[in-house]
UniProtKB/TrEMBL annotation:
Organism in which the protein naturally occurs: Paenibacillus phyllosphaerae
A Pfam family reported for this protein in Swiss-Prot or TrEMBL: cNMP_binding
Name of the molecule in the record: CRP-like cAMP-binding protein
Keyword Ligase: no
SMART domains per record: cNMP
Domain of life: Bacteria
SUPFAM superfamilies: cAMP-binding domain-like
Domain Cyclic nucleotide-binding, chain residue ranges per copy: 3-49
InterPro entries in alphabetical order: cNMP-bd_dom, cNMP-bd_dom_sf, RmlC-like_jellyroll
Entry keywords, A to Z: Activator
Keyword Magnesium listed: no
Length: 185
């Protein structure tokens, strides 16, 4: 919180006392594609995968969330407000869980919480914009090298077929790229 607000230690403690922290085992589905979200999350420990299942049955991974990242579904623009994604814990995960129904109440009770949330969303959105632009302009090997540089723990934490889906390639292509990168070619 110190990074995002100017709350005193006492004010931070008051916010912390209102937070709900839950542990979820590996494999827990936090939200299913098609369901209306009722919670938002902040990862203290663990890894969560965001993916969609297309009409042909193909799963496409669009994000991996790890420590100190927020998970929220921004879908108020949709008439049915259903999530386009499923969120699943890839590891035993510890999350701060926020109820969307009482979000306004929390912001009124802790006035700097709204500013903190806005700043976090703005920073996250900016990072996502940059990552998406870089992703679109890069080759699969460049995407893999970027992950090695920016989020190296994903390589060990995430199943290869899911990482390949995230990179927009087949698992076989990912294996070839990994070999080339390891051998420095």
């Amino acid at each position: 919180m110190s990074r995002w607000t100017t709350l005193t230690v006492e004010e931070q403690q008051a916010v912390i006392e209102d937070l709900v922290i839950k542990e979820y085992p590996k494999g827990t589905v936090l939200l299913r594609q098609g369901d209306v979200p009722t919670h938002c999350y902040f990862i203290l420990q663990g890894c969560v995968r965001q993916f969609a299942v297309h009409e042909d049955g193909r799963e496409v991974t669009s994000q991996f969330y790890t420590e100190e990242q927020a998970i929220a579904v921004f879908n108020l623009h949709r008439s049915d407000q259903a999530s386009a994604y499923t969120f699943t814990c890839l590891e035993d995960t510890v999350l701060v869980v926020g109820e969307l129904a009482i979000e306004e109440e929390m912001y009124n009770k802790h006035t700097q919480l709204a500013n903190m949330t806005r700043r976090m969303i703005e920073a996250n959105f900016g990072q996502m914009q940059e990552a998406f632009a870089a992703f679109m302009a890069s080759t699969p090997e460049e995407r893999f090298r970027a992950i090695l540089h920016e989020r190296p723990s994903l390589i060990e934490r995430v199943p290869q077929h899911q990482l390949a889906s995230y990179l927009g390639i087949t698992p076989e292509s990912l294996s070839r790229i990994k070999k080339r990168v390891q051998h420095g070619t």
